[in-house]
Amino acid sequence: MNLNYNFMIVNFLINKKILLIMIRLFFFCIFVPFFNSIYFNKKIKFLFFYLTSYLINFFVFLHSKNHEKIDIFLLFLNQIFIGCLMGLIVQCIFSSIFLIGEIISSLLGLSFFTIFEKDVSSNSLFLSRFLNIVVILFFLSFNGHILFLQMFIKSFQLLPLKLCFLNYNYIFSIVKFSSFIFSYSLLISIYFLFPILMLHILFFLFMRIMPDIFFVSCSVPIFFLLGMFLLIFFLPVIKIYLIYFLKKSLFFVIFFLKKFKIFI
């Protein structure tokens, strides 16, 4: 009797639709920088996934309630694939920020300035980590987390809880989007790339004109001081570019799904 009672409670709290939503939400959030951290308590993660899925449950319609076992298995795999695909889009956005930090760090001579990240068990550049924290704060300042929640709820209208397949245009649009964000990260880094490249050319000319003078010993502190000056001088411009970059990326993630066509 006690086992039946417990089974009824579990069946009431986690039904088939909530479980499918939780699967998509889980595989979406494992790519988000905050939720994939090992410092985030697992019990709190599960509680967040369940409460969010329970709230979304009222806005989502399950097309067929009488699935066979093989259909349920394929439906689970379908939700895993959709969640991973949406999460990879978000991961591309934040990975481009690390690319900006690595380019700037290499130009400033700060490649040796690394910190150990326990999440990925490897070293990362300090400037990349700093820019990532700044971007997350910008992301929260214009309610990016609410836009992500809207995007996730919208995905159930465009990609409902049924066996659906992704056409070629959908995958191709994601590839174009990833190329856009990485090219935009290079555009942000060009403010540092061009002045330091000019300084490198100037040092090369001095070395050809006056070969007896050893310029290498004084070039490292000059590049470092110039890089710090450029970082402080262009910080307001970088802030504007980063906010525009994040907003455009978020709007793309939300609205490019409208062009997607589902076929069964």
Automatic annotation (TrEMBL):
Coiled coil: none annotated. GO terms for cellular component: plasma membrane. InterPro entries: T3SS_IM_R. It is a multi-pass membrane protein. Pfam families: Bac_export_1. Keywords: Cell membrane, Cell projection, Cilium, Flagellum, Membrane, Transmembrane, Transmembrane helix. It comes from the Bacteria. It is found in: Cell membrane. The chain crosses the membrane at residues 18-39, 46-64, 70-90, 97-116, 128-153, 188-206, 213-234, 240-257. GO terms for biological process: protein targeting. Belongs to the FliR/MopE/SpaR family. This is Flagellar biosynthetic protein FliR. It comes from Buchnera aphidicola subsp. Tuberolachnus salignus. The lineage of its organism: Bacteria, Pseudomonadati, Pseudomonadota, Gammaproteobacteria, Enterobacterales. The gene is fliR.
